[in-house]
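Incident log, structure service

09:12 report received: a user says their structure output differs between two submissions of the same chain.
09:20 pulled the input from the user's history:
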Amino acid sequence: MRKSILLVATSWLCAFAAHAGPNDTTNGALPVVLKSESVWKDNSVGIQGKFMLTAGIGFNAVSDVTSINYIQSKFWNDSLAGKAWQGLAVNTFSQSPFYNLMLDYGLTDNISAGIGLGYQTMSIQWGTTNIFFTDNWTRFAPSLRADYHFVAKKKMSLYAGGRLGYNFYSLSSDFSAYHPAYSKNFDGGPSKGIAQIHGGFSYFIKGFIGINAELGYSYGENYYAGIGLTFKF
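09:34 re-ran on a clean worker, output below:
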């Protein structure tokens, strides 16, 4: 008798499961949700047709590199040396972060292209043992970007790519009082071109706002690490 009841109950449950299916909510049945459907298996795959706007800061060593350029500059060694400016040296230098703004657009599910804009200032103090001068540099750095997204989900993006651009610098110095053409003729400034390879990720909250981080290697002192906020729309 017990075996008969058990067989009937088992047959009834199998028939009910076949009728309802895993996602049927009729008759009070609950949908089956797999744990694996997380950030790696969300319901939005690809970045095609989407804009990604990122604002943040980057970190580089532009003032260190520029201070070396000063020592090696032709202007210093040919125009100033031996003309009452012997013993020239860089005393101190400082810089702001690299303020970074990027706008990318998804061309396909995995490929994006866009533009980047950077702004930075730095100050370099130099002179002899008797007198020092201060050079204030301002940098504007537009560039083009392209990335391949290995992971392109609603909540996460993991990518690698490159960036090409140009540095526009302006220089103001109190040494111009001694040498009026100094700001125009000085050849020891930072590099002009930008070439960078980078890798990064974005993690989105509710799919449209998130955090972004990048690591990169560059010519032209773009940045070797950057963080920011990203908006996807």
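09:41 both user submissions now match this output. Likely a transient worker issue. Closing.
09:42 reviewer note: The mean pLDDT is 80. Residues 44-232 form a domain with the Porin fold (CATH 2.40.160.20).
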